[in-house]
């Protein structure tokens, strides 16, 4: 082609050439027999157009060419394309559209989108009903809605998606209204889960991905939100029934489904809480019944029922904690429900024993020698871990601590602790959960005992180095730190002369070691091994210091009256009755009582039973411990008074003026870690603090208190 | 001034407190008509005071009461003490006496007697009664650093000061105080609390009583006891 000698092409001539090309194209599109464009054909067409558009005015035919091209194009669409779409329906129409669309990418859209939309939706519904549909086709069709927006989703959303969502809602609303009547809760949930899965699948196959959340929201709303309560409360298959029958899988499904809807888990967790509370309360009732049945027969087998109860509570906790972790995927709502449920029945107590006491007793049984539970070290560790977990639900932690301390003291002082490692290990666990203040005294007790062993070794060394210091009998002294240990009566007993000497020797030794320390002797905790010269054979008796003192009285007299014994021992009636009973009315009758009855009375006389014997050479004569429960509770009550006083003063010191309700609330909050103070107790302390001029009531507002510095 | 006057007039009276009060005071007021009011008040004081302590002591008050024709446990004597702002139970100092009698404009026994109904009216009036009520408690604290009053005395005091206004409440409360074991003594706050209770709480249905309010615990317990009894 020569640049310079380009011939000007006029419009008619050029357009005629173009029309030939257009006709050829139409034939090809409509599938009429026509050879394909060759590259030469293309070249000629394009060159002609190029030239016609670049000729100097007035021969620049750009505009005219464009108009004419449009005319012929529109004529083609209206006379051929659209009729062909109009006469076809459903899938065939869609096929036609895709074909036409692929051919033209023209604005057929406006004309057909409504029809297309309806057709697509109806296909989707068919698929929902289980029919096979051509997903690739739908994908192509829907791409048109996306493509037409040229990057914007408006066409897709307004012309297709909105109607599709509406239809979806209607579809599932219809379905759900039937299912909820016909199906059990698990079946319904299975269907719902399957539907959701399918819808998701649908999105991935042919809907635009932006539809997924909206679509699922619709389905969840119709299937779950609308019928949530009806579904959960289904009488024989709802949430209650699933929990009752341990339908773990269904519960997991329930969690998965309801976690998707707004506030969906709340009712589930509420039912869970109710269920656990009921189960726990049933355990309490069971233990209560067992205890009251036992009362009639034998009350001596101390707390075996209660022991069983704690075991069962632990099992219950294990079970439902597993539910929370697995079925309910560790969701905080369910942790909270579990906690609240346990708090309800764990604070009820059984047969007059608070749960604080039960837990302490339970620990004691595990930690002491010969307790009722025979467990491996690992099992002990695991059980202790669980008891400590349960403790979190108990509001009277201070009461637990006091009972625990009493029992720990017995274990340590009477050499009943089975394993030092376990003792320390539970203290570590308690410390982690309740803080250092909670366990400091208990740790002190354990340490005291270690120190006491060293001290005893030193004492023995001292004795061998100082032959003049001879206690006359073997003496072991356990020196304890006041304050760590529960309070005991001291210096009450009139010690036999033999033992007085021991005490003196030890005192001398102790003074060589420490200055400014006061020794207080607690005879009530002492144990003695004494030799009894009985006629059949001599025997070794293991008795308490109280019992020993009473027996030693009979070295000097053959026969003693109750009151003589009481005067010489300087003990209370309670103590004297208790120890004389152990020596004359129980298994081993070391003393003969006149008259020979089963109880001790102040008019009784006692005589040494020289005929006594037993098949063993060494016997232990138990002295039943005094019931410490009352004292523990009193001690805790007293401590609480101090704690409440201190808390109120602390709060008022910083706030100066505070309303009554706030004061009570802050006080409860401050003390809540250790115990749940009773409102009355707080009021009582406020009354007292007013009398003691720490607080005064505001003159004008009687609900307001002021701190008096 | 007060001291010298008391000294002057003390000797003749000390021997004859009981026998001659009425006549003496009548005579002195007539014979010394020109005496100033304050002098007459002092004079009257002297006729009851113990010369060595310079105060009217329990016997003096006893005498005053019989001259006034009232028993010493009469609420009006408590009111008189309130008017004087008397500090110690059973005793009137000269300052207190002057303060009280001047306020009552009574410089003779007759005038004092006549002033009593007025005083009663004054006390029952709302602005004064709470003050009087609190005074009654304070006045009953006889020991150093004493802050509480035993239940038995409280019961007597309640009848005395509230008996005429809130008889049903007082009767029930006393009944409760006597059977309960939680409290052996009552403090000022509880004392005042009961008066507020009488004024604010509908009785005997107690419908507007709210134990969540800062009522003293003893009143919570009282209300609980009443409700238990009623049901």
TrEMBL record, chain A:
What's a single GO CC term here? cullin-RING ubiquitin ligase complex
Residue ranges of every copy of the Cullin family profile domain listed in the record: 354-584
- Report the domain of life of the source organism: Eukaryota
Per UniProt, the keywords (alphabetical) are: Isopeptide bond, Ubl conjugation, Ubl conjugation pathway
Q: Name one GO biological process term.
A: ubiquitin-dependent protein catabolic process
Instruction: Identify its protein family.
Output: Belongs to the cullin family.
User: What name does UniProt use for this protein?
Assistant: Cullin-1
What organism is recorded for this protein? Liquidambar formosana
State if Ubl conjugation is listed as a keyword: yes
Automatic annotation (TrEMBL), chain B:
Q: Residues in domain DCUN1? A: 36-227
Q: Name one GO cellular component term.
A: ubiquitin ligase complex
Q: Name one Pfam family in it.
A: Cullin_binding
Q: Which GO terms describe its molecular function?
A: cullin family protein binding; ubiquitin conjugating enzyme binding; ubiquitin-like protein binding
Annotated GO biological processes are:
protein neddylation
InterPro entries xrefs: DCN-prot (IPR014764), DCN1-like_PONY (IPR042460), EF-hand-dom_pair (IPR011992), PONY_dom (IPR005176)
- List, as start-end ranges, the regions of compositional bias called Low complexity: 1-32
Stretches the record annotates as Disordered: 1-35
* Gene3D superfamilies, A to Z: Cullin, PONY binding domain, EF-hand
What is the protein's known function?
Neddylation of cullins play an essential role in the regulation of SCF-type complexes activity.
Protein name, as recorded: Defective in cullin neddylation protein
Name the species this protein comes from: Liquidambar formosana (Formosan gum)
């Amino acid at each position: 082609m020569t640049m310079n000698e380009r011939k000007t092409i006029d419009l008619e001539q050029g357009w005629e050439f173009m029309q030939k090309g257009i006709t050829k194209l139409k034939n090809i599109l409509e599938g009429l027999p026509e050879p394909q464009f060759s590259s030469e054909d293309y070249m000629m067409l394009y060159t002609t157009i190029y030239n016609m558009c670049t000729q100097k005015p007035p021969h620049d035919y750009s505009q005219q060419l464009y108009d004419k091209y449009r005319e012929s194009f529109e004529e083609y669409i209206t006379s051929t394309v659209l009729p062909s779409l109009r006469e076809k329906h459903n899938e065939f129409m869609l096929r036609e559209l895709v074909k036409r669309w692929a051919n033209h990418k023209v604005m057929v859209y406006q004309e057909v989108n409504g029809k297309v939309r309806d057709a697509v939706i109806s296909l989707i519904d068919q698929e929902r009903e289980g029919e096979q549909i051509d997903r690739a086709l739908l994908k192509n069709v829907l791409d048109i809605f996306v493509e037409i927006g040229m990057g914007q989703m408006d066409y897709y959303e307004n012309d297709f998606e909105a109607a599709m969502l509406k239809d979806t809602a209607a579809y599932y609303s219809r379905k759900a209204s039937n299912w909820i009547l016909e199906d059990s809760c698990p079946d319904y949930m299975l269907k719902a889960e399957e539907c959701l899965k399918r819808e998701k699948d649908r999105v991935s196959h042919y809907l635009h991905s932006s539809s997924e959340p909206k679509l699922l929201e619709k389905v969840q709303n119709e299937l779950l939100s609308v019928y949530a309560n009806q579904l959960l409360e289904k009488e024989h298959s709802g949430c209650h029934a699933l929990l009752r029958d341990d339908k773990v899988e269904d519960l997991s499904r329930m969690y998965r489904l309801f976690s998707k809807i707004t506030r969906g888990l709340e009712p589930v967790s509420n039912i869970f809480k109710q269920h656990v509370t009921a189960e726990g309360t049933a355990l309490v009732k069971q233990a209560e019944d067992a205890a009251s049945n036992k009362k009639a027969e034998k009350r001596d087998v101390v707390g075996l029922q209660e022991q069983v109860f704690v075991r069962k509570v632990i099992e219950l906790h294990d079970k439902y904690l597993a539910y929370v972790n697995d079925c309910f995927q560790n969701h905080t709502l369910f942790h909270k429900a579990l906690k609240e449920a346990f708090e309800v029945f764990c604070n009820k107590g059984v047969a007059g024993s608070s749960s604080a006491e039960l837990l302490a007793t339970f620990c004691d049984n595990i930690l002491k020698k010969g307790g009722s539970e025979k467990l491996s070290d690992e099992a002990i560790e695991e059980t202790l871990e669980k008891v400590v977990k349960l403790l979190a639900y108990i509001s009277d932690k201070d009461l637990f601590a006091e009972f625990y301390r009493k029992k720990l003291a017995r274990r340590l002082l009477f050499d009943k602790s089975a394993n030092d490692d376990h003792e320390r290990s539970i203290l570590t666990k308690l410390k982690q959960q309740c803080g250092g203040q909670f366990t400091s005294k208990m740790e002190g007790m354990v340490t005291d005992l270690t120190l006491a062993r060293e001290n005893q070794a030193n004492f023995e060394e001292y004795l061998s180095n100082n032959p003049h210091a001879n206690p006359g009998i073997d003496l072991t002294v356990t020196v304890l730190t006041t304050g760590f240990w529960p309070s005991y009566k001291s210096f009450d007993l009139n010690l036999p002369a033999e033992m007085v000497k021991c005490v003196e020797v030890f005192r001398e030794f102790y003074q060589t070691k420490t200055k400014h320390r006061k020794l207080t002797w607690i005879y009530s905790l002492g144990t003695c091994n004494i030799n009894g010269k009985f006629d059949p054979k001599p025997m070794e008796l293991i008795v308490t210091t109280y019992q020993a003192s009473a027996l030693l009285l009979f070295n000097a007299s053959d026969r003693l009256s109750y009151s003589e014994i009481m005067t010489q021992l300087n003990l209370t009636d309670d103590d004297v009755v208790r120890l004389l009973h152990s020596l004359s009315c129980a298994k081993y009758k070391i003393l003969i009582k006149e008259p020979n009855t089963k109880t001790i009375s102040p008019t009784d006389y006692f005589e040494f039973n020289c005929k006594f014997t037993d098949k063993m050479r060494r016997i232990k004569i138990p002295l039943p411990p005094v019931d410490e429960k009352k004292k523990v509770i009193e001690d805790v009550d007293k401590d609480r008074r101090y704690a409440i006083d201190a808390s109120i003063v602390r709060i008022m010191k910083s706030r100066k003026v505070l309303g009554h309700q706030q004061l009570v609330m802050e006080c409860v909050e401050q003390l809540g870690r250790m115990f749940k103070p009773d409102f009355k107790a707080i009021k009582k302390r406020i009354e007292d603090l007013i009398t003691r001029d720490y607080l005064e009531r505001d003159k004008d507002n009687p609900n307001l208190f002021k701190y008096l510095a | 001034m007060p001291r010298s006057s008391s000294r002057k007039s003390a000797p003749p009276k000390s021997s004859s407190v009981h026998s001659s009060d009425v006549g003496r005071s009548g005579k002195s007021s007539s014979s010394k008509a020109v005496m100033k009011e304050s002098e007459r008040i002092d004079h009257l004081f002297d006729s009851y005071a113990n010369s060595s302590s310079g105060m009217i002591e329990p016997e003096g008050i006893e005498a005053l009461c019989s001259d006034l024709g009232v028993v010493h446990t009469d609420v009006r004597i408590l009111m008189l003490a309130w008017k004087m702002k008397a500090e110690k139970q059973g005793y009137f100092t000269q300052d207190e006496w002057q303060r009280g009698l001047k306020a009552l404009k009574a410089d003779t026994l007759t005038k004092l007697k006549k002033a009593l109904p007025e005083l009663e009216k004054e006390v029952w009036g709302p602005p004064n009664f709470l003050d009087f009520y609190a005074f009654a408690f304070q006045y009953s604290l006889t020991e150093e650093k004493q802050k509480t009053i035993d239940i038995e005395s409280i019961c007597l005091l309640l009848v005395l000061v509230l008996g005429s206004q809130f008889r049903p409440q007082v009767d029930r409360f006393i009944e409760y105080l006597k059977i309960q074991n939680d409290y052996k003594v009552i403090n000022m706050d509880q004392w005042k609390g009961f008066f507020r209770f009488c004024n604010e709480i509908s009785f005997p249905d107690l419908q507007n009583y709210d134990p969540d309010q800062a009522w003293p615990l003893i009143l919570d317990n009282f209300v609980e006891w009443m409700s238990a009894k009623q049901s």
